[in-house]
Amino acid sequence: MKFKAFVSLIITAALIYAFNRSWNIKGTPIPPMGKFMDPFHGFWKNAENKITPVLAIKGLSGEVSIAYDSTLIPHIYAASEDDLFFAQGYITANHRLWQMELQTHAAAGRVSEILGPATLDFDRGQRRLGMVYGAQNSLNEMEKDPVLKKVIEQYAKGINAYIESLNYERLPLEYKLLDYWPEPWTTLKSGLLLKYMAKTLNIAEKDFEMTNALKFFGKDVIELLYPDNEHVGDPIVDNTNGWNFKPVTLASTPTVPQDIVQIKPLIKHIPDIGSNNWAVSGSKTSTGSPILCNDPHLELNLPSIWYVIHLSAPGINTMGASLPGSPSVISGFNDSIAWGVTNAQRDLVDWYKIQFKDKSKKEYLSDDQWKATRKVIEKIVVKGTDPFYDTVVYTHHGPVTYDETFHGESEKNHYAFRWVAHDPSKELLAFYLLNKGKNHNDYQKALDYYSSPAQNFVFASVSGDIGMRIQGKYPVRRQNEGRFVLDGTKTSNEWQAFIPNEQNVMYKNPVRGFVSSANQYPVDDTYPYYVMSNHFEAYRNRRINQRLGEMKNISPQDMMSLQADNYNLKAAESLPMWLAMLDSTKLNTEEKSVYDKLKSWNFVNTADSEGASYYEMWLRAIYPMIWDEIDSAKVSLPEPTTYQTLKLMKEKPDLNFFDIVSTPEKETASDVARKSFSKSVLDMAKWKQDKKLEPAWADFKDSYIQHLARLAPFSYHVRHGGNNGIINAHGRRNGPSWRMVVSLEKNGLKAWGVFPGGQSGNPGSPFYNNMINVWSADRYFNLHFNTAPEQMQKFTMSVQTLKSAQ
Question: Which among 83, 160, 540, 542 has most CB atoms closer than 10 A?
Answer without folding.
Answer: 540
